Amino acid sequence: MSADPGSQEIVIDENVDNALHSGALRERLQDPSLGEGTITLIIRDPNITIIGDMDLDYDDQEGAPLYGCKSLLRVDLKGCTKLTQLGNFVFWGCSSLTSVSLPDGLTQLGNSVFYKCSSLTSVSLPDGLTQLGNWVFQGCSSLTSVALPDGLTQLGWGVFQGCSSLTSVSLPDGLTLLGDGVFRWCSSLTSVALPDGLTQLGYGVFQGCSSLTSVALPDGLTQLGNNVFYQCSSLTSVALPDGLTQLGNFVFTSCSSLTSVSLPDGLTKLGDSVFSRCSSLTSVTLPDGLTQLDFDVFRECSSLTNLANSAGFSDVVPYLRDRYKCVTLRKLFLRLLGKYNQAVNEANGNEIEKHAIALANFPTRRVTRNRSLDVGLFLQTMNASGGNGIEGLVGYILKFV
What whole-number distance in Å separates Cα of residue 383 and Cα of residue 67? Predict the structure, then answer.
């Protein structure tokens, strides 16, 4: 081990394993006389394969090789050409650490490797990295952006939790799972592009992301877990995939800027307080197949409550049910009008004769998906509405537009 007092650089290129795992290096770097953020550590060992312990328990974190070394400013591990793993808690609490150079052969980061490295601004992860442990970057409050390698398929619990300066993250296409709280309290995150293959969002994935304005969810998602967008106070819109069948508890609670949500037809359940305290929410479509609404789904949704009361409803849910039926009817009649106009355009004769032919030949089979519309009631009501047929049709349609 050699040290250059002038440059505050420490280079380890012999007896590396012993220096790391005996605690000697940690004690040296924890010496208060060094000050904070004064040391550049360079480790060169072409044979070492792991730094730390992948099985180290939380209660034993202080035994990690570089735990709490506030003197560290930069670390260079590029000379460890066979290094494949950084164990649990290796850089825990290195609050002055600004950058780390990782070797290309690294494949795995253990739990909480950079936990509360609050000065870390960026990190370049090697392309061969396939596993990130839980809470790897939790509390890295100066980290602004991260590009994740393509080989990652899962992000564990709380990987970026509390990274309050993180504005963007590039997620790999092969990612299928975001674990609980991955981006919780990332208060500067404005948008995230989620990969198409993503099938699961864990508990509170975006909870407290107060700058997040919009999210496009991939089609493969079938469930949103509890608290996914809890307290995303800037979220104005979210596109829910057609295959979604359940929304967990508190999914959009306190999304105070959310104005409208279109729930997919296949949705069958809304969990507790899904839209609680969404004070700007004015429009929600409740599909007919939605059979289970748990407690306080629309609690303290002041704008919705006012609209419901103005329409003569004492509760939000029956008001939204009624609105859904109106919207469905509106869509039906607009489709009917399109078919009717097409029939008129294809008929021969003067204007009145064209309308008469169109009415006579208009299909009356029952509507099912990909088949003709059921227009019996439509025609019956239209004919009873008075006028010469044309005026009756237009007048009736206008009631629903």
Answer: 82
Please report the pLDDT score of residue 331 as a whole number. 57
In the block, tokens 């730390």 appear at 52
Task: Look at residue 262 in the predicted model and tell me its pLDDT.
Answer: 84
Would you say 54 and 23 are in contact if contact means Cβ atoms under 8 Å apart?
Answer: no
Q: Please list, residue by residue across 304-338, b when 16 or more beta carbons sit within 10 angstroms of its beta carbon and e when fewer do.
A: bbebbeeeebeebbebbbebbeeeeeeebbeebbe
Give the pLDDT confidence score for residue 364 in this predicted structure. 46
pLDDT in tens, 288-344: 788 889 999 999 999 988 888 888 888 888 878 777 666 555 555 556 666 767 777
H or E element: which one contains 42? strand 39-43
Q: Tell me if 171 sits within 8 A of 193, measured CB to CB.
A: yes
Q: What pLDDT is attached to residue 360?
A: 67
Which stretch of DSSP H or E encloses residue 307? helix 302-310
Q: Cα dist. 15→26, 54, 68, 81, 87 in Å?
A: 15, 21, 22, 16, 19
Query: pLDDT value at position 1?
Result: 47
Q: pTM higher than 0.70, yes or no? A: yes
Residue ranges of the chain whose pLDDT lies below 70: 1-7, 324-338, 340, 355, 359-401
CATH of 152-310, one of 3.40.50.300, 3.40.50.1820, 3.90.650.10, 3.80.10.10: 3.80.10.10
Secondary structure (3-state) at 24: helix
> Residue 77 class from Cβ within 10 Å (0-12 exposed, 13-18 middle, 19+ buried)?
buried
Closest CA to 202 of 171, 230, 225: 225
Are 1-131 and 152-310 in the same CATH fold? Answer: yes
Under CATH, which number does the domain 1-131 receive? 3.80.10
Distance of CA 13 to the CA centre of its chain: 44
CA distance 85 to 164: 27
